[in-house]
Known about the structure:
With 464 residues, the protein is of the alpha+beta class. The chain has helices at 7-19, 58-67, 107-115, 183-188, 248-262, 304-315, 336-348, and strands spanning 26-32, 39-42, 49-52, 69-70, 73-75, 78-80, 86-87, 89-92, 96-97, 125-135, 140-144, 153-160, 165-167, 170-174, 177-181, 194-201, 205-208, 211-214, 216-225, 271-276, 281-284, 319-329, 359-364, 384-389, 403-408, 418-424, 439-440, 447-450, 452-458.
Amino acid sequence: MSYPISTSTIETLKRLRESLTRKPPYASGTLPVQADDLILFFGKDVISQRLDYATAGPEQLETLSQTCDRASFGRNNEDVLDDSYRKAGKLDTRFFATPFVPERSKLVEVIRGSLLEGKDATRPIHIELYKLNVYDEGSFFKPHKDTPRSGSMFASLVVVFPTLHEGGALVLRHGGEEWTFDSAQALENAAPPSVAYISFFSDVEHEVLPVTKGHRVTLTYNIYYADVDDDPNLPAALPSMDPLAASSHGNMFLSALKELLDAPDFLPKGGALGFGLRHVYPVLADPGHPMSGSLDRVRRLLKGPDALVHHACTALGLDANLYFMYKEEQHYPEDPARHEAERAAYANAGGYHFNLGDYAIIMTERVADTRSVWDAESGFEDRMVAVFPVYKPGRGEDRNLNAKVVYDSHYYSGSEGEQVHWVTVPNSQTKITQPMMVYGNETTMGWAYADVCLVVHIGRPGRR
Ligand SMILES: O=C(O)CCC(=O)C(=O)O
Ligand SMILES: [Fe+2]
């Protein structure tokens, strides 16, 4: 059930979308440090060795490398050693000491100022030291996401020390884009004593390219919000700022959103705006635990563009709800040709900017983990979908999820339901079976990344 929509409203929607992809999901650069920050103490039985990154020669770095254990990583819920996926040495924190403390450096400001949005920039964060890694010549770490180590972790930090090395650039990929940070190159251009750093949202896929020469020594950190479990009514630790902190993309988003709400041809009968969030979020998947499958913490953990949407909607007094999101592929096992023909028809339909592809979205307020409950055989037509409450009671364990199902309004146009206009298409890889990642940097008990969407109810034009 489509409605006519003017070119100017289509333009506004485009601006709304574009303001969400303007900022990369990381911050990187070099940071001047004190000479003492470049000292490392390490050792297995006793911490008896001392090394100065600024002057260490290949032999000393080799000693450090020899002291390391092989670095493992998480694959399908197991920590594994596999040189074809991750080749690097690691030291756990009990085997070394360093005077360098990110929380006492400009890094806190950098992370707050460039990674966080609006009022999130004033929230307290913890930067927890995680590992020391040594990447010798030929070492690398293939694409992965960093495993959430709790429900309040949102970012990772890598600090690269100025040891002699080449290669080992970090490549990040997210939302179809790719960025490369060549820390070795950056250090070469920085005035000593400096370190290189990169901080990124932990669910952004990243890869360490092979080190081609020397030893690349890093410290990695996990970054948490310290206030996720605080009472939201308590005063903030720091004075709060303008919700959108006058960032250009924040302003662009807010003004486009206001324009959209004012457009008489946009959802003329009212409905909802849908945003498939650009990041995934840690959710406790531990049956029996009261927090299991809960969205509560996700609200306080929104990253980058996702936080921007939430802040802007809240600032305009709109009712923004989060849902877990599952994508279900449409199958025509009996007729692949028909499948292809319909796919092509969707691609040409509607005059929108992209095609949703052949899937339905299922939204729930708690994590669903079995496929059996849902039997969706549907697709989308140009992002206009209807929201249906799932019938709640039932004997099946999952039936009592307080859930909403989003189906294609094309197939269900006769039904009562709220129309959702998807501003950003849910782009999840999550299938209904399990919100589990395949490659992480470590396995953790219970925490898994889940896809989330945000649905904002809006009234009719003139009343929103
Ligand atoms: O060394 C880097 O740049 C990244 C390392 C990494 O991705 C990890 O340890 O999980
Ligand atoms: Fe990583």
